[in-house]
Design goal:
Elements (H helix, E strand, L loop, with lengths): L10 E4 L2 E4 L2 E3 L7 H11 L3 E3 L9 H15 L7 E6 L17 H15 L5 E6 L10 H16 L2 E7 L3 H10 L6 E5 L8 H9 L3 E5 L6 H4 L2 H10 L3 H11 L3 E4 L4 H8 L8 H8 L7
Parallel strand pairs: 3-4, 3-10, 4-5, 5-6, 6-7, 7-8, 8-9, 9-10
Antiparallel strand pairs: 1-2
The structure holds NADP nicotinamide-adenine-dinucleotide phosphate (NAP).
Length: about 290
């Protein structure tokens, strides 16, 4: 019998909702958004991350790509997990999905309605606050936005809600003050913070799942260490597969936004490899090996 102790399911239940354990991210794809979103689903990704922030994402292109892939693969909307975000005007360009003079409750409602239209959906699986209004604390705008998101979750329009680009104290405040606790935290994940260890511990303690992005691009120095190359040699796998497998094995949902079909396949194949406990410990502490 093979050792299946670290066999990782592609789908798990979180607060009663079926969620994929690996997400395809759609930022910075511009004219390729539709084709790449479709290719990712055709490759086997079951979850898509986007944002109603035209500056970095083409959410309408994502919607077209989803429709194309559903038709090609003969899938239903319910077979896919769709996640998008509410983004403050300060992080947008002139192409806003809401009236900027409206109150935040209205902005969230307008942005959400526009996302449903873009994605040709009647509900979203996950709705994320893209960034708190400032890097310290949570202000009145954040609370108004969060209350509006709680309303969307309670109505069933968004099955789960979450937050992105958030610090430890801010997340503590949100957990303490929210009626609907965030289901997800999506952060840029650095080896030098022990892969956001503090926030991940807070997630574990509060039934929140951590989604990590920039795993490859934010950690190129650490991932080029000889210890990582040794694992690559042992398993005959790529460095990208090691970091995605590491994320999966420690209970994190990794995001990849690769623009390459072969990298899509390669990234999903990280389900097939397995790191030892010692390798996991080493990667957890890789930024501190020489310190
Ligand atoms: N919440 C936020 O504020 C926020 C911010 C940033 C990103 N995100 C989300 O996270 C997603 C991923 O973004 P990211 O910052 O992690 O970067 P990314 O878009 O995934 O970029 C990864 C880079 O690594 C390269 N690469 C080389 N080998 C690869 C492999 N095997 N697999 C994947 N990439 C490989 C890619 O090149 P190739 O294209 O040639 O493979 C690409 O240049 C975004 O699309 C977005 O959905 C969210």
């Amino acid at each position: 019998m093979p050792d299946t102790s670290h066999q990782i399911s592609r789908l798990v239940k979180h607060r009663g909702v079926t969620i994929p354990t690996f997400l395809y991210g759609t930022a910075w794809k511009e004219a390729q958004t539709e084709a790449l979103t479709s290719a990712a689903i055709e490759s086997g990704f079951l979850g898509i991350d986007t944002a109603n922030q035209r500056r970095h994402y083409d959410e309408a292109g994502v919607g077209k790509g989803v429709q194309l892939a559903l038709a090609k693969k003969n899938l239903q909307r319910g077979d896919l997990f769709l996640q998008t975000k509410f983004t403050y005007a300060a992080s947008q360009d002139h192409r806003l999905p809401y009236e900027p003079e409206a109150d935040y409750t209205t902005q969230v409602r307008q942005s959400f309605t526009s996302s449903l239209e873009h994605l040709n959906a009647s509900y979203l699986d996950s709705y994320i606050l893209h960034d708190p209004a400032s890097s310290q604390g949570l202000n009145a705008a954040d609370w108004e936005v969060w209350r509006a998101m709680e309303t969307l979750q309670k109505s069933g329009s968004a099955k789960l809600i979450g937050v992105s680009n958030i610090g430890f104290e801010q997340l503590q405040l949100l957990v303490e003050g929210s009626e609907v606790k965030p289901a997800f935290v999506q952060n840029r994940c650095y080896a030098r913070t022990r892969w956001d260890a503090g926030i991940r511990a807070l997630c574990d303690a509060n039934d929140m799942i951590y989604q990590g992005f920039s795993l490859l691009t934010a950690n190129s120095v650490e991932l080029n260490r000889p210890e990582i190359h040794a694992i690559s040699k042992r398993l005959g796998c790529s460095i990208a597969q090691i970091v995605f497998r590491f994320a999966l094995q420690i209970g994190m949902i990794p995001l990849t936004g690769t623009t390459s079909k072969s990298h899509m396949q390669e990234d999903l194949a990280s389900y097939e490899i397995e790191l030892t406990e010692a390798e996991i410990d080493m990667i957890e502490n890789i930024a501190f090996i020489d310190k």
